[in-house]
């Protein structure tokens, strides 16, 4: 898990202005975006002083302070979070895939996208109103590989992959409403697993909301539950 935590912390820096606070890596992308956060890199527990320095950084930029911690490291950092008056806000399940046994090639056509603006607009249609700005930020981040699934020759869904230190992070997955229940997410997962393997990744990761269709899809694609991402914010 330390490798995954370190890769996530490093990858997050692609989204904007970053600073390190001990083992916390903070980033500011733009006001109002969920990309404004600090990631714990898993190297060691952070101290209350690290949290407070990050909080000052976030406040100076006028953004909310969020701290993401993988569950494997939570016991070592909970005292500092409590002392700095941070509370758990939400949990995402972490799934990993070793890329050894991959699904068959996807039955739907999945193609790389070289049009970040078009990809972001399509992705936001799947996610819904209010997601436009964050999907533009995701699409424009350096080193992000964009994919579009097609059904009957029509764009039906989107997904992204970012490779950092052998860890392929899957994100940006959305399906247009009219194409749901057509295997779009399964195709995008399979295509990215093959792409990650070809790019030399050692492991693929994805964060999903518990007990959702997305979680069921990643399980069917061969991912295994490996922990959780715990997100904290000041009370």
Structural class: alpha+beta
Low-confidence stretches: none
Mean pLDDT: 95
Number of DSSP helical runs: 7
Strand order of the largest sheet: 1-2-3-4-11-5-10-9-8-7-6
Mind describing the biggest β-sheet?
11 strands, mixed
Q: Which descriptor suits the 3D outline?
A: globular
Distance between the termini: 28 Å
State the order of secondary-structure elements, H for helix, E for strand: HEEEHEHEEHHEEEHEHE
Strand content: 25-35%
The number of E-state strands comes to 11
Helix fraction by DSSP (H/I, runs of at least 4): 25-40%
If you compute it from the alpha carbons, what radius of gyration comes out, rounded to the nearest whole angstrom?
Answer: 18 Å
In short:
With 235 residues, the protein is an alpha+beta fold.
Question: Could you walk me through the main structural features you see in this protein, from its secondary elements to its overall organization?
Answer:
- The protein is an alpha+beta fold and 235 residues long.
- The chain has 7 helices and 11 strands.
- It has an 11-stranded mixed beta sheet, with helices on both faces.
- Strand 7 and strand 8 (154-164) form a beta hairpin.
- Helix 4 runs antiparallel to helix 5.
- The protein is globular, with a radius of gyration of 18 Å.
- The two termini are 28 Å apart.
